[in-house]
Amino acid sequence: MSSESKEAVQARKKSNLAFTFMSLEPERREAMAVFYDFCRIADDIADEPGRTDDQKRAELDAWRKEIESCYRVDGVPIKLMAEMKPVIDRYGVEKADLLAIIDGVSMDIGGARFASFEHLRRYCYGVASAVGLVSIKIFGCTHPRTPEFAETLGYALQFTNILRDVVEDKVKMGRVYLPQDELAALEVSEDDLANPAANPACQKLFRLCYYRCKHFFNKARRLLPDSERQNLKAALVMGAFYEEILEKIAAGGFALTVERTRLSKPQKLRLLWRTLREAKRPGRPRSLPGRAAVLGGGVAGITAALELGLEGFTPHLYEARTYLGGRAHSLTDAATGLTIDNGQHIVMGCYTGFLKLAELLGITDKLERQPSMRVPYVSPGGRWSELAAQPLPAPFNLLAGLFKFSELNTADRLAILRMGLVMRLEAVPADDETAAHWLRRHGQTAGSVRALWEPFCVAALNEPTSTASARLLHETLRRSLFGKSDAADIIVSKVGLSELFEPETSLFLNSIGGSLSLSSKIARVEVAEDRETGIQRVTAVETPRGERIEAELFVSALPWTALRSLLPEGSRLRDHLAAIPSAPIMGIHLVTDRPLYDNGADFVGLLDSPVHWVFDRTHTLPPEYAGKHLYAVISSTAQAWLDMKSDEIVTLLRTELEKFFPAATEMQIARSLVYKSRDATFAAQPATEPHRPGPKASPWSNFLLAGDYTATGLPATLESAALSGFAVSAALDG
Predict the structure, then answer these.
(1) Among candidates 174, 166, 84, 92, which has minimal Cα distance to 133?
(2) Global confidence as pTM
């Protein structure tokens, strides 16, 4: 080994190892230097351009035989491993780990490709995790959890290395260390990796790689035994270096080039000092990672699963339907084959949780954002008006827009200005106060309620002001209309709601060994009591087919109406869920022969009508529908419509539309589809709030709750659903 170790020593001096070795005692430092030389030589054999593939395999086979000889007692002379043999004997290095390293570097021969994450993980185990398993022997670690920590940190380091070098590997070596199925799913070719800027999909791919790296870094943190922090300080320093490189890549917008992202010497010294200082302190208590079963594939379940993945758990997401989205999904009209959304779900600029989820998945390109808030309205008789924010700082952007909103008179505008002052002074309504009472208490006029507060309350809370919770309306207004200048921007999906989260969700879950299972309804929860603590825990859930799903952690992101039936009779949570009433929404989809209006508005609100919104979805029609128009008509608080037949609803709807749109009188309806959702949202009333549970309100210690109905402080919106998923992650270690 000594004949080639001079080059290895020089390489080591230039690498991050020079800093990490500084934290070791002299004897262990020397042993690690010898081991590093062994790893470098094996790697160089696989990379040597002057040898044929057969020659490389033969040389590595010779090293395998030498490793075998080190563990035999028959006196066979040891040549190649002469320097490594004392390290093996002194520190009890396992033969299997050294052989795994040789197997790993052997996979580089011949320009191997990796079909899937699991295939790539096997490679990373050899070239990184097995290195960690040898290293912890030299470090003197004895805790039984340390090997899993070393394996996991090895994955984190190697996956970061792969992301950092992805362009260089392709350009200089012709190698691709990314799963082929991920490239195919995101429509990235191997040639694109030589110049990622030419294909925007590369950034999505790199985000996926970042997510994978963070999963393993955070999993390693959870596995780190407190008693081994001092012994593992060299590994912790190396982890700190690579995680800093990873964050530097992300901060640069994943704009990777052939030039590696590097840390300066001052940055390395700062990280070295910080990590060694932290290693002397006890770590904060963390839940051990494991398999997590997330039940329900709506926004709450998707968010919870992805966040658990980031936190180091291995998430498996189960959805009863054949598509994701939960109550925000697409469906196919059997008569026409058209894919339409069950309702028109709007995102606002203040939906920080939902937008964080979209950013994580890299799906913001599937969303369309208004440059600023513009909400058109139409009154009976066809009179149009518009509430539009002006290009001014908040709150003047909205106030200026109010003075141009023709549905308001001077008294209405002054009343709204007064409410703006109330909001600024943080005058929070009483817990049991209705929105109508709160608005009256602060001098809101009938005109301001009709044109602004009532439409907003019905849209955001699915509840009229007469019965809506003032607390929820206040919080929604505080974040949106009275928030930052872009907080009230309206954002809609450019694709069907079920397409919004796929294939990205399944790709992200699969990228860390998790999964997405559709058509997987949960029928039963299996519970057992811990004999030592007496605490009840969920051990498994079952599907109607009898499939048993085991996990260490379970998250219910099911609707509260579905979860209720899974809970034991008499449980406190079941009683609370039974006390949460539902509120319906109805959507009517119309294919027409002519437009309802011709001013180009994407949507319009209807004042003084049981029909609240009309969305123009014509742009989603396939080419064979040229000349046709598609509208989604939404009625919130739709109790009055629920017991009507579809034909009756369409007849009444047409009569209603004719009051607002003159073109409706001549319009021919080629196809109509009525979608009623009785349990679209929980009823956002004052009496409901005390019954909304937190994430840890279940009777079982390892069964957490997510969903827009949980105690997020918001009504049943996409934002509430997303925030509940983040709350699950926050509750892990609380």
Answers:
(1) 92
(2) 0.93
